[in-house]
Amino acid sequence: MGGVVSDEQARRWRLVLGRYADSNLPRGPGDGELDQALGYLYDREYTGRGHRHAKGGGGSLDPSVVAAVNWLGRARGLFPESTLERLQADAVTRYGLDDLLADPETVNSLQPNAQLASALLRMKGQLSPAAADGLRTLIARVVADIVERLKPRFTTSLNGSRDRFRRTPHASAANFDWKRTIAANLANVDPATKRMLVDEVRFAARKRRSNLHWDVIVLVDQSGSMAASLLHAAVSASILSGLPGIGVRLILFDTSLVDLSHLATDPVEVLLTAQLGGGTNIAQAIKHAETLVSQPSRTVVALISDFDEGGSVTALLNSVRRLAAGGVTLLGLAALSDEGEPWYDRNTAGRLVTAGMQVAAMTPDRFAEWLAEVTA
């Protein structure tokens, strides 16, 4: 490696590599606690590959010496929140420290976030009964946080459609009226640059929805890559179930189907019932959705998937064409990674669009607005 390595760079590499780098990168002064906390967790990487644990200094892998719950408490005082979230996720999901989830006080002290919840959902079948109780508590906290953020958006979007003939002073992205905004600022176009200076921003008021009933059939892919999307899908379905004029059917699928419509109001139970992993048969799910449609012009089929079809693509496209021809509104929501990045098969998604399905990669709050637009 060329160039001069600074003392700080050497210090960071030493903390990354652990005590096995002592001969070339001695531990810096004052880094003892950091090294011990990191070593307690990540030395498992070395022992898992057959390395013998080094004697002297640092932490021990013996749980009787440094319990996982005590380790987490120490780590909380040593690392910033972003690093702590990574450490606790690795501890539970990568190195199997069930003690963290089996201790109620520790569970209550964990910082709940969607990334950790998604990782836990992927491994929930491997947890001990005591840890499973902690998982339920943690998932419930994460769900409550997401509901608090999403419910106002769904309620605002779906309890009333936009009324373009009535202005409102209530400024929000959901109410932004771009057509009237452009019309109001046409006099502000610079002929030289062709750019518009916006002085007036217009927003449309909302009118209450009519009493017409809509059926929303939510199909959620529960293959292994779908943990983050499943989390938000379960929350979205629960919020929709509580809104007037909307009936929700919630179907989870991989290579088989499970109808969880009776649990749609309870996202925690949906998440703990789901079995992430296995293959994907979207064609089977869409064909099943065909049997659930009673009022095509008042039905939305929302498919949440990575579109990595393991079944018959031809059968899938045929079902989509039949539903679209019958007047059903079809929405395809591409899977998002734990970091919120789109993660899906673009070729299959493109073919679904050609067959009559609208496909987009968006966050759950935007899904609320999209659903409001198609049911207005």
Would you summarize the structure shown here?
The chain has 376 residues and is an alpha/beta fold. It has 15 helices and 10 strands. It has helices at residues 7-17, 32-47, 68-78, 81-93, 99-102, 104-109, 114-123, 129-158, 178-184, 227-241, 267-273, 282-292, 313-325, 346-355, 364-374, and strands spanning 160-167, 189-190, 195-196, 204-208, 214-221, 246-253, 257-259, 299-305, 329-334, 358-360.
Structural class: alpha/beta
Residue fraction in strands: 5-15%
Determine and state the CATH class of the largest domain.
Answer: Alpha Beta
Largest sheet composition = 6 strands, mixed
Count of DSSP strands: 10
Domains (count): 3
In helices, the fraction of residues equals 40-55%
Question: For the CA atoms, what is the radius of gyration?
Answer: 26 Å
Q: Spatial order of the strands in the main sheet?
A: 7-6-5-8-9-10
Model regions low in confidence, pLDDT < 50 over at least 5 residues: 53-66, 161-170
Q: Name the CATH architecture of the largest domain.
A: 3-Layer(aba) Sandwich
Q: What would you call the shape?
A: globular
- Quaternary structure of the protein: single chain
- Summed over residues and divided by their number, the pLDDT gives a mean of 79
Number of helices: 15
Alpha carbon gap, first and last residue: 61 Å
